[in-house]
Amino acid sequence: MFHPLLDDPKKMKDQELENKILDLSRKYHIAARFGQGSVCTQIITILDVLKEELNKRQRQSLESVNKNNKGLDDLINVE
Question: Would you say the pTM of this structure is higher than 0.70?
Answer without folding.
Answer: yes
